[in-house]
Design brief:
This protein has about 500 residues and is an alpha+beta fold. The protein has helices at about 50-55, 95-100, 105, 170-180, 190-195, 215-240, 245-260, 270-305, 315-335, 340-355, 365-385, 395-415, 415-455, 465-485, and strands at about 10, 30-45, 55-60, 70-75, 80-85, 110-125, 135-145, 150-165, 185. Helix content is about 50%, strand content about 15%. This is CHAD domain-containing protein.
């Protein structure tokens, strides 16, 4: 019977460096050993370890004779994550492309050598009588130099265990027992870099208490960290000339919703400041996103019209002008990335990952559940009022539904996955309907401007823009009424 346990585990040898007696691991199996390559890595960071605070890595890696050396950048962030590999034989000169990509995460501070790692390998393999692999252990001798005010050098042995496809539970038990007898234990660190920095610069991961039970601080810490990570990863994408506008704004919305739904759990002054700065940055991104959405939206609407009512160069006018406007607003975003205000925002977000300014308001499950119930009641009340005469009612309802959705996302471990999934689907549907209302409102403003200009531009006609304007008014009214129905 094959083993169902994890196929790969990294162990740390005892502090004495004791290693198992290899012939005793699986005595009845054929044991083969051979040396592996030596590889070397040079990690760069600022003096303040800014990249480390963003859980990001910039290194020069020489993996040995069989692979190409070069520079590597790794920035987490889900769909916005970055992994770049640039071949190079120069370990002293960081490519400009990588320096520019991390300029936001580093705050523009100079990069220096932070840690060097040298790793030597020795491979052990065990085969059964049919020559099938049972287990492989790679013994890695790691020498790490941490460079700071004074350099510190450390050496340790780690053992990477991989079970073969022919391994059974009995084989795994025998291997792990032999490792335990030699004093080896599962490695407490995710990587050699974390091990090297553990004594002088502990991992700056999300600020969550230990233990298994979900708590307010644990869930807030994990959720905040994921959103802040997405915002930082979006910064890297922008600097690389890519388009992270929508997912970055989603991260900002989730973060701001959390600050508001659980406002009592955060220090008021810092919460208010961060909310305001996130609103500023989201607004800049929103101008770009609105043009992206409207270019596609209005082009699709235009295609549904009979040719005889499309008068003048409407399609080219919509596409050309909205694209130019989008690029103008994108230029404003890129200029903002180099502003002191934005640098202060990113620095604050990095601090919030590890030291969120939490109050002593409470840490039990009831704190989370009570806030979720309040967010849901507010959302449904405002959605029911979305059909009122008040023009601001749909916007208030959309934002309240958004906060309720994200609150349920955060509280899913408490609510239960099935129940949470059902609630999230409901609020997502409301969001989409009211988002349609907002898109129509933005479209009518733009179409009014296009129509006015067309009326005074030779060779153009405002008729089609007026027709599209009327269709958008109807779409907005339908969305308003549909949303109110969804609240019942």
């Amino acid at each position: 019977m094959a083993s169902s346990a994890p196929a790969h585990t990294t162990y740390l040898a005892s502090s004495r460096g004791d290693l198992p007696r290899w012939q005793d691991i699986l005595p009845k199996a054929r044991h083969v050993e051979h040396p592996g390559p030596e590889r070397h890595s040079i990690y760069l960071d600022t003096d303040d370890r800014d990249l480390r605070h963003w859980d990001s890595i910039l290194r020069y890696r020489n993996p040995g004779p069989d692979d190409e050396p070069g520079w590597e950048l790794a920035v987490p962030g889900g769909t916005l994550g970055t992994e770049l590999h640039l071949a190079s034989t120069d370990s002293d000169l960081v490519p400009d492309e990588l320096t520019a990509a991390v300029a936001g995460l580093t705050g523009g501070r100079p990069l220096r050598r932070s840690v060097t790692l040298g790793i030597g390998e020795h491979r052990h393999e065990w085969y059964d009588r049919k020559d099938r692999l049972l287990a492989q252990i790679i013994v890695e001798t790691v020498q790490a130099t941490v460079i700071g005010r004074a350099a510190t050098v450390e050496q340790w042995h780690q053992l990477d265990l991989d079970l073969g496809t022919a391994a059974t539970k009995k084989h795994r038990t025998a291997v792990t027992a032999a490792l335990a007898r030699a004093g080896a234990a599962p490695a407490p660190h995710r990587s050699e870099l974390e091990h090297a920095l553990a004594a002088t610069d502990p991992a700056p991961g999300p600020h969550t208490p230990t233990g298994k039970a979900p708590t307010a601080r644990r869930m807030l810490g994990a959720y905040l960290d994921a959103q802040i990570e997405a915002i930082g990863a979006g910064d890297v994408w922008l600097r690389r000339g890519l388009d992270p506008i929508h997912p970055t704004r989603v991260g900002i919305r989730r973060l701001r919703s959390t600050l508001r739904v659980w406002q009592d759990l955060f220090e008021p002054a810092q919460r208010t400041w961060l909310d305001s700065e996130l609103s500023w940055y989201s607004g800049l991104l929103g101008h770009v996103r609105d043009r992206q959405v409207q270019r596609a939206r209005l082009a699709a609407a235009l295609e549904t019209l009979p040719p005889e009512v499309v008068m003048g160069p409407v399609a080219s006018r919509l596409d050309t002008d909205l694209l130019a406007d989008e690029r103008r607003h994108l230029d404003e975003v890129l200029r903002a990335l180099d502003s002191d205000r934005y640098r202060m925002l990113l620095a604050a977000l990095a601090r919030w990952r590890t030291q969120p300014p939490l109050t002593d308001h409470g840490d039990g499950a009831r704190v989370i559940e009570k806030a979720v119930r309040t967010a849901e009641r507010t959302a449904l009340s405002r959605v029911r009022a979305a059909a009122d005469e008040d023009e601001a009612a749909p916007s208030r309802a959309r934002k309240a539904a958004e906060r309720a959705r994200y609150a349920v996302e955060l509280a899913a471990p408490l609510l239960g996955r099935t129940r949470a999934k059902r609630k999230i689907a409901r609020y997502t549907n409301i969001q989409q309907v009211l988002g349609e209302h907002r898109d129509s409102a933005v479209a009518t403003d733009l179409l009014r401007e296009f129509g006015a200009r067309a009326g005074t531009t030779p060779g153009e006609n405002g008729f089609t823009f007026g027709l599209l304007y009327g269709l958008e008014l109807q779409a907005a009214e339908r969305a308003r009424r549909h949303a109110a129905d969804l609240a019942t």
